[in-house]
Amino acid sequence: MHMAAQHPTAAVLLCEVVMEILSWVPAKPVTRLKLVCKSWNSIISHPHFVKLHLHRSSKNAILLFTLTQPLTLGEERKQSIVLSSVESFIQNPSSALDAQENHHSLHVQDWVSGSCNGLVCLARILYHPNNHICDIWFRLLNPLTGFISENSPCLSVSMHTAFGFGYDESSDSYKVVTVIRDSSGTVTAQVYSFGGSSWKRANSFPAFPFSVEDNGHFIGGTLNWLGLRNPHGGAYDWADVTLDMLMIVSFDLKSDTNKQILLPKGIDEIPGQKPTLGVWENSLYLLHDYKNTHLIAWQMKEFGDENSWTQLLKISFHHLGVERLLFPEFIFENGNIFMLRGRHRFEEVFYDRRDNSVKRVNILANNCYFDIFDYVESLIQPC
Length: 383
Prior knowledge:
- The protein has two domains: about 10-55, no CATH class; about 60-375, Neuraminidase, CATH 2.120.10.80.
- The chain is globular.
- By secondary structure, it is mostly beta strands.
- The strands form six sheets. Strands 4, 5, 6, 7 and 8 form a five-stranded antiparallel β-sheet that branches. Strands 13, 14, 15, 16 and 17 form a five-stranded antiparallel β-sheet that branches. Strands 3-2-1-26 form a four-stranded antiparallel β-sheet.
- The protein is built from seven helices and 26 strands.
């Protein structure tokens, strides 16, 4: 007796059931399930499944670290990416960063300029110090799948350049933005959509980020920088900065336009040190010192609503055991745990506002400097 052929409708339903189940499996094991059979490989590779899986992936559970070994005489700088769960890192930071199975080597000239939807944006920079110009190419890396995109077209810019990377849902495209300040102090922006053939000039920027290391912070389809309204000739001394010069610029990736986000109304004087802007757990934060004695943290509860700025924290430097504001590195647990860079190169200070506790941790990851990014594991591989 012959087995009855499977009805097409039943096959479709079975495929949908398998897709539904697999979409809840974490990204790393689901990549191995491609080997089970051809039909599963086809399902997992389908663009609809990839987006569904990303939508259902755990957010704020994974951290991405870039480790950079200090330069030594006669040796090239070495860089790598490390992925760690938030839980593992908080429990034992050094052990999490030393886990070799989660390391991905980077080219000596590559710099991580952002992370979004499981993709890491790498900037390759070639400096021409004689004329203060550098050539930059960007490409995308998915550390989980090993996907690497083609390079963007080369962009020749001044050395005073800041980057930002994010996702434009309206066009289903990933974009990188460069904010450039020329010798006259004029600030402009160039936008590249991965898969495209050229850079596009955007409207002029009203401010320039404090530091070229300050990547744009992605949230709600926008990239955000904290900067100064064009200071004289592009140079400034913080002691001469006034509150009305300080602003947050928000760049909309859909329209390629920018607007200003007002600072919290409770800030009535210029901080003694440069403030820090950041996006943690899908909220915009602003951190600054108050009279060089306290750390203040503001959270924008609803992004885009300037009336939703809320003072989340005010803690004295004395309680933190420091004499000055520490550089904020990350915020965990919905704004409850603050990770601050300590006085020494590998020291981190963790402050938990739930019990007002302070913990100092020496993080020794093969004597490497590190930066930290929010990350979500995904199967995304854009064209």
